[in-house]
Structures are given as structure tokens and as C-alpha cells.
Amino acid sequence: MILEFLKVFLVGGTICAIGQLLLDYTKLTSARILVLFLLIGVVLQALNLYQPIVDFGGSGATVPIVGFGYLLAKGAMEGAKIGFLEALTGGLSAAAVGLTAAIVFGYLNALIFRSRTKKQ
Amino acid sequence: MRSLNRENTAYVEYVKQKDPKTKVLKTLIIAFCVGGFICMVGQVFRDILQSSFPDLDPDVLSGLVTAIMIFLGATLTGLGLYDDIGKFAGAGSIIPITGFANSVVSPAMEYRTEGVVYGIESKMFVIAGPIIVSGVVSSALVGLIYWIISLF
Fold it and tell me: Is A8 on the interface with B (CB under 8 A)?
């Protein structure tokens, strides 16, 4: 149990630390880093390299945005086993829960809460 | 204006000189710890769900955990707390899926005064849009390649 959480912490922390290094040492903005990490997840899973990280790190590998890329690629790869259409739509189907949650909760929060005055 | 810019770059150089390496190391450690902590929160929800509903499909479980984390990220952003975490956690709060939720809610709230359609509904995709587009395009490509391979 403790070992399991240690693994999650180490894997998740390492992924975020790599992101922090990119923020500090390159001119990449946070939006570009998010896209980059997502694509890294897609490519790694397409090469079957991310599944072992998920098996080892659990939520430490799936909660970071890289895990979202992993989910997209995994869905597409499973869809490809069924047919042509499923191969193209499998990624979005797998990511549908996360995207729906983000859009619905995002919309509701924007309606309920007011932005605090920005301190520039 | 020119002299102002020159002063500015001189100042930036000065700050770079004075700014010790330890600050980079400090933000790196904080990003590591906050990112690791957020992932552990996800694991806690996963373990609770798994022990409550042992029959749950692993993919459904992952989906539920993702939805919960996005709900937390969106709500904390709505309450104005996530930006406070982001100020000191840097990538530790950006890279987890809660940061993706933050990137949706934050601009939606900010541009709310511009109306529902041009404010909330379009601005919520300022950062999330590129992520969704690149994700869908790349995953469709992966699916296409795997489908072609499966033909042989």
C-alpha cells in the first residue's frame, strides 16, 4: 500500500519535474508544453512504451496530461482491431469521459463563479 | 522607449546574475512534490472506487478517476484557489489533468462578460482547443497506421 503510493508519487512527480525543467530552461509556454506532453504520450503508447509506465506508476502515469495522450492512442489502437471507422474514432471515444467532464464542469463553473480581479 | 527597454534588459541580466541556482532547484522540487501529490490524490480515489465496486472495468475506473480529478481542478479554479497553487507549484499544477481543467475554466470565467457564445463557450478552448485538436489528429493517425498494419 505505502509502496504503491510511493511509486505513484515518484512517477507523477518526475513527469511534472520534467515539465518544470522545460518551463525554466526553454521558451516554451505552458500551453505548448501541455500539447508536447500529450503528443509524447500518444507516441510512446503507439510504440507500446507507455503501458509499462502505467503498470508501474498507476495514477502517477495516468493523471498527468501524458496519460491523456496514452488514453487517446490506446483507444485508437483498440479501435483498429475492430475496423477502419473505429480506428479513427477510437481515440476520441476513449477520451470522451475526460473531455465531457472538462467541458461540462468548465461551463458550470464559468456560470457560477466570477473571476477575481486580476492582479497584474 | 528605447532607453526604457535597455534599462529593462540590463535589469534582467542583473537579476539573472543575482538569481541563485537554488531557486531553480527549489521550484523543481516543489513541482515534483505538488505533481506527485496530485497524482496520489487520483490514486486514493482509484483505490476507494476499486474497493467499493470490485466488478468495475479498469477503463471505466480510469474514466471515473479522470472525471473526479477534472471536477476538483475545475471547482478549485472556480473558487480561485487553483491559481494560488499554480503560483508556487509551476508545472506541478499545470501537467496533471487538474491543470487541463484549470486551462478550460480560467479563460471561460475571465471572458464571461463577453457573453455565453463568444465569451464562455469559445474562450474555454483557448488552451484546451490545441490540446484536443492535436490529440484527436495524432490518435486518428495512430489508429490509421495500426489499421493498415492489421491488413497485412
Answer: yes
Q: Does this model's pTM top 0.90?
A: no
Tell me the domain boundaries of chain A: 2-112
Q: Checking phi first, is residue B49 left (phi over 0); if not, alpha (psi -120 to 50) or beta?
A: alpha
* ipTM for the predicted complex: 0.90
pLDDT, tens digit (0-9, with 9 covering 90-100), for A83-102 = 999 999 999 999 999 999 99
Structure letter (DSSP) for residue A118 = P
Q: Are A47 and A58 in contact (CB under 8 A)?
A: no
Contact B123, B114 (CB under 8 A): yes
SS3 label, residue B55: coil
Chain B: give the shortest CA distance to residue A22, in Å: 9
- A63 neighbourhood in chain B, CB within 8 Å: 38-39, 42, 65-66, 69, 96-98
